Amino acid sequence: MKTKSARKPTKAQKPYQDAKRPRKRAVKTTHPAPRPRLPPPSASPGLSSTHSGPAPGAVHYRKLCEENVRRRYPGLEPRNDFDLVQLSSAQYKGTHAEIFAELDNDLAETSEDFGYEYMMENSTSLLETYVEPTGVKPGTSALFDDKFVFVRPIPDSKYSLRLFPGSISAAEYCLDFVDSATGEPVNSPFEYELWAVPDPDAPWLSLPITGKLRSIERGHGIKQADILPGREKFILRDGQTCVLMRPGKQPVRFTVPLRRVETTDVVEDVYVIDLPKVVGP
What we know:
By secondary structure, the chain is α+β, with helices and mostly antiparallel strands.
């Protein structure tokens, strides 16, 4: 969308300034607006890492977008790469004809200032990148398997905690709640608070600070009642310790697993002294 450049307010006159002194006329200069960037790739409201080439856990963004569009808009076929990016990253409503009309308006607005060729080339370039999505729930994408997914029952409850991987480069792990009997994800099924706490095995190595965690959706300003069924999730970090607090019930503590990444042999210019990590009975 076009935005009008705001006029810079005139500088206030200093005390005792000579009113008869001729004023210098400021020359208004215009700066070219930066070219727009298409929305960053993401599978859902969450974080993701982009790479110029494949990385551990990375997928081809074009394939991810195609999968998202098939799930969100059954029977709707993108006409070009701009359509594919927009349909995957934004929410459109209406009939297919109404959606295409809105896409045409979006393309016309951006092309008016930055050119049709640029917008199309930028869309294609973005689709050829690789991404590590965070927030893709198990069983919802053919591009990811259920490796490193952990489900643990919550004591005195008919629900379970489910941990599933996010971006490995960002060390992100996700958490949601599932029905223990059916395995179906649910949104905040009971009254609780989720807190991040220091590592109980070595609390002196981290700042003695705790913090209450919110789901991705709540963090993006979505009201609890407006979160789509089964979509709510939390972003945690590899190795992070958390405590689930419930009124009148025993707290539940857990530590997110640490994932190891296979890397090429790197010769460090340092001598490593071998010592045990844990000692004692």
